[in-house]
Amino acid sequence: MADFSHLVTSKVNIGLVQELACNELLNILDKCEGTKVLMWDESLTGPTSLIAKPSLLKERNVVKMFPIKPGDLPNVEVRNFIFITRPNLQLMNAIASNIHSEERKSKVYSKNFHLYFMPAKSLLCEDQLKLKGVLGSFQVIDNFKCQLFPFDSDVVSMEYCDAYKELYIEGDLTCLHQSAAALCTLQKLYGKIPKIVGKGRFAEKVKELVKTMTFNENVGGNDKGSIDQLIILDRSIDILSALATQLTYEGLIDEFYGINNTTVSFPAEKFASPSEDINFSRVATSSEKKQIMLNSREELYVELRDKNFNAVGRVLSRLAKFITSAANERHGEKTIQELKKIVETLPKFKANETSFSTHTTIATLIKDHISQYEFLDELSCEQHFMMCVDLDKSNDYIENMIYKQKPIEKVLRLICMQSAAGNGLKQKVLDSYKKEIIHSYGMDSLLKLGKLEKSGLIRIQSGSRSYNILRKTLNLTVEDFEDFQEVTPKDISYVHSFYAPLSIRIIEHSMKPLGWSGLNDILSCIPEPSFEDYQMTNISSSGRRDSLVSEISQSDIPKVILVFFIGGCTFAEISALRFLSQQEENNVEFVIVTTKIINKNTFISSIINQ
Amino acid sequence: MSLLYNIGDWFTLGHGNTYRKIELYQLEFPENINLEHMNVFAAPYGGPIAITKNMKQLTKTGSSSKPIIYIFTCSGHLLSSINWNSGALLTLGWSDSEDLLCIQEDGVVLIYNIFGQYQHKFSMGQEAADTKVIDAKIFATYQATGVAVMTTHFRIFIVNNYKDPKVRLLPEIPKSSLDPASWAVIMEDRRTTCLITREQEIFKVKQDENICTAMGISLDFDYKTIRFISVSFNNRHVAMCTNTGILWMGSSDLRTKYCEFNTGRTEMPKQMEWCIDADDPLKAEALVMSYPSILLIVGINGDSNIYTYDPAVFLIPEMDGVRVLTNGYHELVQKVPKCVSNIFGISISEPSSFLFESHRKFSERSHQSDEYLCLIFDKIDVAVSECIEAASFEFDTETQKSLMRAAQFGKGFIKGHNPDEYIQVCRNLRVLNALREKDIGIPLTYYQLRHLTPTVVLDRLVFRKHYGLAIQIAKHLNLSESRILLHWAYHKIMFEKNDLEIIQKFVQKFKDPTSLGISFCAIAKKAEEVGKTDLAIQLLELEPNCSLQVPLLLKLNENKKALLAATQSGDTNLIYMVLMHLKVSTPLSKFQMIIRDFPLAQNLYKKYCQLNNVKALKDIYMQEDDFLAQAEMSLEEALDSYIKLDSSLIEISNNFKKGHKDVEAELSEDHRKLMKQQKVLEEKYARAFYGLSLHDTIRELLVLGDVKLAEKIKNDIKMSDKHFWYLRIEVLGSNYQWDELEKFSKSKKSPIGFEPFVEVCLKGRQLTEAKKYINKCRDDRKIIWYNRAGLYEESAKLAFELRDIDSLRNIHNAASTTNNRELITKIENFIAAMSGKK
């Protein structure tokens, strides 16, 4: 957690995003003199660790940090309490109760309160504070302008939790405006993006907003920046990939253990010291969780993260052999020089070995999970849907799950997948599912179903079966599937073993000579607008066309494409994009920006839960 | 080398101190204005000049007619006039932003702009009003313009910034039967200080200090009273004149005396102003004194020069000289800058002088040019930059040109000459010359331009409505034009009558407002301020940035337009702003009607209501006939307690029905029936049933063994057979009732096949039982279940029979963990056999 060097590796330096946010935060701290306590909106504590080192906060007299909770403020002797929060009315009530209790406690009013909204002030919240009579108690009410959190050298997240729900159920488009603002921030950092393409009505709206904002604020001047193209996609155009079980290493870790802001917790007892002669100090403590940070700073993780899980074992066993042979070598007789060399490589060797043992443990944990019959049955059920098998009748497996009262999220996920694959469910099928669910889980599940219907994740069949059409035209399910493709993949479909996420297939196709316009026909079966737009006229001709040489050398520089997902994207999709950029024929680098990283579990629960 | 060039008006005060008089303009005042009977109040930096009848003469004649104040430019062009109709006028003065401050005897200060338009007024306090003011001074502080007044009781009140008038009283001077003879304001340590003379005494009073310091000066000559005191423009030097006509010149702290001078005149000078050296403002050089028909210039070394003038002479101090105004002429007296005298001075042999001469000879095609050049070849860079510098001090364009040409000629001989200075001076000279034109009449010097900064000068031009010139200058100096355009727009809004024309003009001028830095919103705000509401609305529509429109539209009460702009901007915070405003300003029904047309706004309002006002949300749903939402809302509310749920299920069911959600309606109705039954069950079994789902209710009954009742409820509430079967199997299994299970399996054809049977058996670890059911499964499923049961041998056999080599391989993998060598070999044989056949 100490440094952010891993953000800087690619052509578009994501470190700038971190610096920008960090400076914003430090500005806030510098503005307030004396000792201070930071009161965080709990949902922000994780993301904030991605932008500022704890030591930096300490240097600035931050004594402690607490989550915002209703009731008394923590008893700390400091002058200043700085609240940093998303504009959320419930939290406003909590903050108001904090201040009320503080006012009751001390007659002499000695503490200073500061309130910062991230990313921007909200009138509604200020109104709420006024209503509670505490608006005047704050010395400062201002913005903490931080829209983006750097996850890795190619991944940035807005950590906007309920984007899909807000957009599709509540009809609240706040997230589009913030997305556009975030894209403008990126343009301020990396220069104007000349070309914008995308699919989906919200994507189109974001594009319009980005264009007006760029124009109004005169962002980036007239020079093209380091990003060549922006692709904006609505999550709704490819629901199936959001719901599908990810079969990449990183995706599986996320689905079973939940990666939050690049950090994941495992049961600590599994991580007992693997070989005692190497590291005595690592004794598994009785505390329940072991936190591990997963990002590209760890070499081995970079190699593993995007692999299909079936390939992970091979990498690990290869490494095991290497480590053993290296360790054996050490025991053999050596000259002083040779020994010296070994000693020099020792720290790196040790780091590798720790990393190796960690990932072996994680892989074992995952393996246990995925060998469960339940997992396999569920997987085979969803794979049937992906192959468009028996979409028009009630699925026995789903029904059995209902009868067994399995967690309703799992049931609903599979129903949503059936609906997505079949462009909706037959009325009869849906009605029967509804009935069985209500009978099994009770009346409150009716509300959950209602939300899914409103969001379009479950609907009555209508129109052409676009998924089945696209499955054939875009080759989404690879027919002659062989095991080795998981290990040495030739196609992005490896991320779900044989299914290629539509979202990424679209991006892959847009890089072909016909480009985005060539895709329009294919995508016409999805009834959402598709667009191709330019923020700068005629880049190619206004660019340097003086000599042939410069053209050639320019084409050697990889194109940078910014992919923006409205409503979240999965680790498998990220892996698929990384896979694409590694293919030699695609001279391209991707930067992925998403409202939030999602998986099948978090996506469904964010929609059906309050 | 001596050159007679443009030095006709040069004069010296002692060795090396050369001064010059530069004629700025020839003036022709209107006939009714004769400066002899007038008072002149001029603003520094070539600002406007206010002229009015001499107030003292006025009171003498006792005329009751109110005075007229005329405002002229420096070139004598009448800008405006004010028919004074307020109280008794004492004195006038100009502020740093060119506002005219008019001070009345009652201590009221009225402020006008250069067009004679009244701005506002303030008072110097009740005490000043009560005791009457006898004299007033307007002075420049470091950041603003202040006013000091002296009352008939000789108390001094000051205001340090007329824009933010806070009246302060200065300390009192010691009482005496004699009246003070003169006073002056001076800035000391950033604080306003007054020097007051009485007889031979000098008192210093300072703001925020409660003491009055008595000071004195020593004079060789005899005198009775110090009658006149004057402070230099930069507050560093002080001059005093006694009743005997003796002049004392010294530093402002009165500690250093530069010189004592006998004017030989007992009449008091009308004005006395320091002429500051532009090259070195710390050094005092000369004092300019005006008497009727006479101008006396005294150097600090005691040399003096007398000029005869018109009867009326007025002095206007500047930061680098003194302007002299008479009926016919407007002149500038200044010390000749070093660079200028180095070129044009008499008997001068400076490099720049030679360069100038060389160029002159060159243009005369004379070979002497080269000779001059040879003399200075090693110092040519100094010569060039001195020529450039000198040009910047000249007012005569021909002289400017010849100096610049000399510089241009000279720089040809310098390798790698940096032309920045040359360009800068050229640019600035163009600006200065344009400003000095008679039509504009702002005779700035190069120093003054630099001190004011071009931006301020542009503002002054704009204020005088010289928009064209301002734009030209802004373009020429690469400054932002947006302020000028904005002012122009403001002006149009305020004075043009036809709204349509205004808009057309704006559209024409501001084709690309963003790149010009123009905001239509700002212009609209101005229109709103002057009450042109319609124009403001039309202008707002031109604003491309929706988010800027919203607050002003709300202010204009254009609620619908505001809502539209807010929704277009996509900024939900703005939409909330409009919603909040609408909610308090319009009746609820109208509010709801308005937001109906804006789905996004309505959605946001609904969301807001969900948290703050559920009743209002219900109203909306009712109004919109959104039955589904109503149903879901009541359901959500009812989920808190079973009793509530029970009672509202009819309504919920009805609403679902109206919302065309038949299944939901039916299910709600069924659930109501179920709850009815549950009440009965609770009584019968004394157990909690109320609120359970159908599944749980039936399961509970099955566990209790009441299969009949369970079946009845199943039929009443229409649970599917499959579901019921599953429940029965599951309960039998978990009760370890394997025989009953088997009996049940044979009771009817199973609607869910036999796999659930296998599953419960395996769960209960009953392999033998499980086998019975596996046999009844479909062949391909059999392999799976054998595997899951760990019966690899059976599954391998079956797979072999079915020629399913993939399954065999899987079985082999799974079986390898068992360590059962025999079994493994068997499977391997199967595989070998099949591969062999292939």
From TrEMBL, chain A:
Coiled-coil positions: none
InterPro entries named among the record's database cross-references: Sec-1-like_dom1, Sec-1-like_dom3a, Sec1-like, Sec1-like_dom2, Sec1-like_sf, VPS33_dom3b
Superkingdom per UniProt: Eukaryota
Matches recorded under Pfam families: Sec1
SUPFAM superfamilies assigned: Sec1/munc18-like (SM) proteins (SSF56815)
GO biological process: vesicle-mediated transport
Protein family: Belongs to the STXBP/unc-18/SEC1 family.
Protein name in UniProt: CLUMA_CG020285, isoform A
Organism: Clunio marinus
TrEMBL record, chain B:
Function: Plays a role in vesicle-mediated protein trafficking to lysosomal compartments including the endocytic membrane transport and autophagic pathways. Believed to act as a core component of the putative HOPS and CORVET endosomal tethering complexes.
Taxonomy, superkingdom: Eukaryota
A Pfam family assignment: Vps16_C
Residue stretches making up the Vps16 N-terminal domain: 7-424
Residue intervals of the Vps16 C-terminal domain: 518-832
Keyword Transport: yes
Example of a GO cellular component annotation carried by this entry: lysosomal membrane
GO biological process terms on file: endosomal transport; intracellular protein transport; vacuole fusion, non-autophagic
Protein's cellular compartments: Late endosome membrane; Lysosome membrane
Protein name, entry field: Vacuolar protein sorting-associated protein 16 homolog
Organism: Clunio marinus
Family of the protein in this entry: Belongs to the VPS16 family.
